[in-house]
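User: New here, any thoughts?
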Amino acid sequence: MSRLLAVLGKDVSASLSPKLHTSASLACDLGVVYTALNCPSASDFVEMIRALQVLKARGCNVTIPYKTNAFSLADEHSPASKALGVANTLTFEHGKIYADNTDGEGLQRVIQGLDASCLDRVQILGAGGAARAAAWAVHSLGAKEIFVSARSKADLVADMVDGTARPLEAVPAPSLVISSLPKDSDLASTALRDWIDVQTTPRILDLAYGTLEELSPLASQARAMGLRAEDGRGMLVEQAALSLVRWVGGQVSEKIRNSMWEALGSRV
């Protein structure tokens, strides 16, 4: 019997999650059916969650802008989702909703693959759910200094990790800049010019991701300037693999991870 899974967000029509989970399901014979469901409003999101429960779905991923709503709907919460106050993974079991957050742990795994010096002076752009996951990840990995730059609520994220809140402006000499800005926002398009000190050649990690063929615009612009840069597909794979094993059991295997990367075509 197939297990129904989904990703929910305001507009997930371009989400790569169905490709990742379908690829892993076929490679590992997991019997998963994974779909993308747009929820134009918060009330639509709640109704969709209830519909998935009626359909006896196993769970769902949640993305912008409903991670806080997902957390509030849950009956029980994992330590990670409690620490962050947001959920990107919901599991339906025994009539209850269990909330988890695999973004933080997924990002940890990505950052562990970077140079250790990247954690000397970290700047995070934005103050939403993804920024909270980024702050939690770098703090747990021992970042020496953490700065959160945002138009508002930067202090809420900075206070989580004893970091420093700043207006949306450049932090001098960062070693790593993590952007949680929406891919198509005006802020993201001008980030390298206005919000990032590029003179000291920081590593750039954009949590947004591009298409199967191209990096996100921010990561692509950064590489064109000679900076080392990645977009969010590494985090996408890691958090997806973690979510999948929450639903089907077991551990994240290289077979799951590799099948998801194969669905993306290449590690650009």
